[in-house]
Amino acid sequence: MAIAEQDGNASGYAAPETNYINNGYGLKSWLLTKDHKRIAVLYMISISIFFAVGGLFAGLIRLELLTPQGDFSHSDTYNKLFTMHGVVMIFFFLVPSIPATLGNFLVPIMIGAKDLAFPRINLLSWYVYIIGGTLGVIGILAGGVDTGWTFYTPYSSTYSNSNVLIVAFAGFLAGFSSILTGLNFIVTIHTMRAPGMTWFRLPLFIWAHYATSIIMLLGTPVIAITLVLMMLERAFGFGFFDPRLGGDPVLFQHLFWFYSHPAVYIMILPSMGVMSEMIACISRKRVFGYEFVAFSSVAIAILGFLVWGHHMFLSSQSTYAGMVFSVITFLVAVPSAIKTFNWTATMYKGSIVYNTPMYYVMGYLGLFLVGGLTGLFLSNMGLDIHLHDTYFIVAHFHYIMVGGQVMGYLGGMHFWWPKISGKMYPEALGKASAVLVFLGFNLTFFPQFVLGYMGMPRRYHSYPDEFQILNVASTGGASVLALGYLLPGIYLIWSIFKGANAPQNPWGAKGLEWEVADTPPTTFNFESTPVVTEEAYQYGPIEEH
Amino acid sequence: MAEHHNSPTVGTYLAVFSALMVLTALTVWAAFQDLGPYGDLVAMVIACTKATVVIVFFMHVKYSSRLLWLFVGAGFLFMLILFAFTMADYASRGWLGAPSSYYLSIQ
Ligand SMILES: [Cu+2]
Asked: Which of A190, A306, A324 sits opposite B81 (nearest CB)?
């Protein structure tokens, strides 16, 4: 991308004496920082904690489902467990996961800027997130909430006796944190690109984050308003969703899914950006059809706003509206498929490097493929009548959101870990974790496709005996998956203290963050503003063997 | 990136403020008139006019770059999508002899 001064694996690389990590010590220097890289680290720590909390709830759900009888938890407790698993994982882990951590860290560096456009707003977004998270935890400790993460009316607004108000407000605040992040990214990408960094020289990671930011900015206010309407009805009896007061409960579903379907793309697009970067690097090739991959991100962001009714085929939504939503949903498969095909085409005749990021890329491609294709089953109105609210749908969205996003999050975390921490992680353990996650994930969620097809509904704590074998497999897989997630947590922290120092560009990757910025970067990223003279991913010619 | 071609003057602000006040009074007056089914429409038109005035002058959109216009426009476009698709559902519920229209007819 820019003129490479250092050779890829140059040994004897001397890390800069002061970098963003040792530039200032003490809690205050972190909690009041305006450095996008430190804010990314703050997010990384807090998001990991919420991931662990959400994972704990998932573990308890799987434990209950080990046996057909509802013997481990009371049905009320079970309702709270799956609700809090969903709320924590979606609002406090998946939505901010990649944008707030890797995005925060890399967006300014990749475009050759010193920081984001609004560093104080960036810090504010973390505080808003933390206040929301704290309220969520208070709501959980005070007895939890049992509406499902979807907060459907009239149950949430009228009947539930759990802490709906405080947890919904926590989700409202988390939304504002993501609006602030999206706003910051859009302004930064528009106004702070280094000289020579034209739109079509941007790394695809940036395109993906730009598309994500559009959704955050246009969609999140709607969920915020929707939650407020629901809270007003619950607290003060305003009539928005209660038919006795002139409202309509299905209106809540419209408003809720107007955000929450595009939110799926908030969760998956950043991961696609991570994949584009890693695939180019491990194949030593420019991403095949760069422009198509870039525009497919934008197409996904826009089409994603036109399909929300596919969650409502079995509400009282009209059949005609359902048909329109169904057809547009099929269309979303096109840009997703463009990406998948272009990634595999990138690897074709590439010089593949078999390292940990590559293992995560392969895992991602497999899981996203299954998740995406089963989405086509569900966008079919007729078939959806059979599959709606069964374990089939649970399996489908976990393949997309966990298979897709978490593979990208972990893979990206490994890929850029040397840049973030200045340390190398143990390669063998990295590969082992990718394999464990892939196997554990499939063992957990593939049986759920079968269970759902056989008719097992979601959100019940007991089930008929014939479903037990598959549920035992799923719970067993969840333990393997937990191990796969725990492992990187351990060795990445270990590497901070005991790992070997990372060279500036351990993968010989292209991009300003690898070629120009130090490892770890200095506080203002670059000594002087870099000038970009070539397109992204200009890897040299591949040697014939 | 010339953000401020010409900033609004105090006079502009006062004019906008009085316009908002007049429109508020109009809303109150209209609320007491029997306009039949058009009552909601009139109230909505006045409210939208007020919102537009606030966005264009008080929020400085008039004095901002074309790029900002694009983003403000995008916000409205997507709001329109939200309304149009939702209303399309409500409008077309009775088109098919499906159970939903049956329940509507016995109400
Ligand atoms: Cu959806």
From this structure: A306
Q: Looking at CA atoms only, how far is residue A302 from chain B in angstroms?
A: 9
Task: With CB atoms and an 8 Å threshold, state whether B1 touches A191.
Answer: yes
Please check whether residues B58 and B73 belong to one and the same domain.
Answer: no
CA gyration radius, chain A: 23
Positions of chain A with pLDDT lower than 70, given as ranges: 1-15, 543-545
- Cβ atoms of A24 and A436 within 8 Å: the answer is no
Q: What are phi and psi for residue A174, nearest 5 degrees?
A: -60, -35
How many Cα atoms within 13 Å fall on the side-chain side of residue A101? 28
Residues B82 and B69 placed together within one structural domain of the fold: yes
Question: Residue A318 is nearest to which of B1, B78, B95, comparing CB atoms?
Answer: B95
Same domain, residue pair B57 and B76: no
pLDDT-derived band at B64 (thresholds 50, 70, 90) equals: confident
Contacts of A253 (CB under 8 A, 6+ apart): A152, A311, A312, A315
In a shared domain, residues B33 and B47? yes
- In words, the CATH class of domain A35-537 is mainly alpha
Q: Which helix (H) or strand (E) covers residue B28, if one does?
A: helix B10-31
The whole-number average pLDDT for the span B67-96 is 90
Do B3 and B43 have their domain in common? yes
Q: Which residues of B touch A325 (CB under 8 A)?
A: 85
H or E element that contains A115:
none
DSSP state of A516: T
Confidence (pTM): 0.91
CB contact under 8 A, A324 and B1: no
Provide the domain count of chain B: 2
Domain that holds residue B28: 1-64
Q: Which candidate in A188, A190, A218 is best for mutational testing of the B interface (most B CBs within 10 A)?
A: A218
Lookup: tokens for A389: 């609210």
> For A330-384, what is each residue's pLDDT tens digit?
999 999 999 999 999 999 988 898 999 999 999 999 999 999 999 999 999 999 9
DSSP 8-state symbol, B59: T
Q: Are residues B83 and B58 in the same domain?
A: no
Domain positions in chain A are 35-537
Tokens (6 digits) for A480 = 């393997």
CA pair distance A99, A43, nearest whole angstrom: 10
- In this structure, are B54 and B14 located in the same domain? yes
User: Looking at the predicted complex, does its ipTM rise above 0.90?
Assistant: no
B101 and B55 assigned to the same domain: no
